[in-house]
């Protein structure tokens, strides 16, 4: 009997360790390996960077706390495999230390990450704390909670569980569809004017030349971008407003175009109007009607021919702005060194909040004129440079809407939060694998429908390119969850009796 009890204890410990290890690893990988900024992909001396990299006190504390649950999970897992007390401690240190070292090396190749060997020590210390001090006191509490939950499940009818999961699916799908509306350009202001070369108060000036500017109430394709490379073509393509700046006064077209007033003394040349250093152009009155047209179309494209005089200029320069001053805008094109920075007003970003800022790299490699066309279809932001698609695109989804209310979503994270949200919303559906009272085979129909509902609910508002990735993430999460749920709730059986 003692052998049976020992095997039962090991089996319980193994289950407990796996149950904690999987979400802890997912959290560690998400927080340590996701790129958080644009930077060089590899430092010039990676070994030196790894050895001399430093972390401040708050980062060190975070590294300790992040690996503490890992130490607890490894302690339980090794105990379930029959390792002794010393083996559990040493094994947790070796596994956690090796994982931490692999993460730091990987961070050398991840944009925006800083690798440091001192972080490995902090991670190993956190794992040692979890394995040596917390694993044993926490285990009885976890077992009692798991036993209570399992008892409740076995007493609950499968029909009641099915109703609850159906309700969860309906709420999740409704929230995804509702949040998707916040990615549509529906909150533009009718009071904003067009500015070229600076804001209306002359701040954040941009030294350069503008050949033409045009705004359209639809998203461009690559073919349309290639067909709109000259001022004449821009004016003839039925814009909301368009200006040919190669002549003075500028030729204009479109139902919402207003005459442009010069601030300072802009220079008019064959390349277009030269602005910068307290010289800019602005429409004589707000572009009333533009916001309503864009909101009705749910899409727009801003096209401009631009040539920076200082391609290496570090300070941001406001090239084209449909807005008021520097913090209030509907759409802005900004030079940031060689990159083009785009700020767009959506319900997602709130009226005066320019998050997320979209960065398109290496657009202005020299002072030659470039025709840039920023296109947004209500979900995906694309840039065409001289008619050719830029390598970077950004796809907004419900995940960015939900997270951006509390955290600053960065441009490179757009899309990732939505896929993560789909996986999170599908996790409760794994309960179909729990031992509910009564027949429950039909509950697995929810498992088939769940990923499709979660992935494609945003299509109720507008076609969402992320839907396939959302459905796949939901399906994988659901499959793993069901398998683990069946294993964790399966009764212990053994043929050996002593």
Automatic annotation (TrEMBL):
Entry keywords, A to Z: Membrane, Transmembrane, Transmembrane helix
Keyword DNA damage appears in the UniProt entry: no
InterPro entries the UniProt entry points to: VanZ-like
Keyword Transmembrane in annotation: yes
Cross-referenced Pfam families: VanZ
Domain of life: Bacteria
TM annotation in the entry: 20-37, 57-78, 90-110, 156-179, 441-462, 468-488
VanZ-like domain residues: 31-131
Alphabetical list of NCBIfam families matching this protein: vanZ_1
Protein name: Teicoplanin resistance protein VanZ
